[in-house]
Amino acid sequence: ELPLKGVALLRAIMREIPIDPEKQPQEYVLVLQARHISKLAEEIVFLEAHNKKAAAPVIARAIYESLFKIGLALKNPELAAEKTLREMEWSMIQGEMRGAQEKDLKEIRKRPEYKMIGETVASLKERWKLSGRKISPDKKLSTFWCANEAGMIRFYHGQYALLSAFAHGSGDTLIYHSVGITTGYVLPAVTFALNEAITKIVTKYHKD
User: Fold this and answer.
1) How far apart are the C-alpha atoms of 150 and 180, rounded to whole Å?
2) pLDDT digits (tens, 9 = 90+) for 57-113
3) Is 138 buried (19+), middle (13-18) or exposed (0-12) by CB count in 10 A?
4) With left for phi above 0 and alpha for psi between -120 and 50, is residue 169 left, alpha or beta?
């Protein structure tokens, strides 16, 4: 399968890039996202091979979200690291404060129950050498924002939008599912994402 060849190549390339998580903590986001793409691509190939195709578009959609983060990490490592930290912060908030809304983030950070979360965030910010000034505290870091910042907005409106439609079960895509149109789309979309990630990473580190 082409996706598996892409996974093997991506992993081989990442092994050759000397990114030290202690010395280059911001760039290490790239390593994490590359690993994530590789694992998800393998899951899709497994599902497709066993004719379990319903979940494949949802997983492929997640691959594109990681692709956008790779693009952002290559273009602006500090911005990508700060986005990762904000996502971790929000996950911890949701775990501790059921029903929390992202629009209330500024107020949430003032609550007593946020204290330990805040200390964790501050510790990671120091470890990752983040200034914390790249992103407004009120900025919602959506997938659209990430794709746009990474210069990959065409993929957001293209492959990602179509995979999202499949994932959300919109009326037209339910028809596509019924006639099998999704069957031949997911693996090429995953292969394209792997190739794009590989090309961007090789281009960046070959120049440097």
Assistant:
1) 33
2) 889 999 999 999 999 999 988 888 888 888 889 899 999 898 888 888 889 999 999
3) exposed
4) left
Task: Please report the pLDDT score of residue 28 as a whole number.
Answer: 85
Place of tokens 């939008």: 161
Q: What is the largest CA-CA distance in the chain?
A: 53
Please choose, from the candidates 90, 92, 91, 66, the residue with its C-alpha nearest in 3D space to the C-alpha of residue 80: 66
Question: Phi then psi for 101, rounded to 5 degrees?
Answer: -110, 135
* Chain center to CA of 7: 16
Element (H, E) at 61: helix 56-75
pTM: 0.83
User: Phi and psi for 46 in degrees, rounded to 5?
Assistant: -65, -45
Nearest to 63, CA basis, from 49, 51, 45: 45
- 197's tokens: 């990630």
Only one residue has tokens 């510790």, namely 123
Counted residue by residue, the chain has a size of 208
C-alpha to C-alpha distance for 34 and 70, rounded to whole angstroms: 7
Q: Which residues contact 139 (CB under 8 A, 6 or more apart)?
A: 145
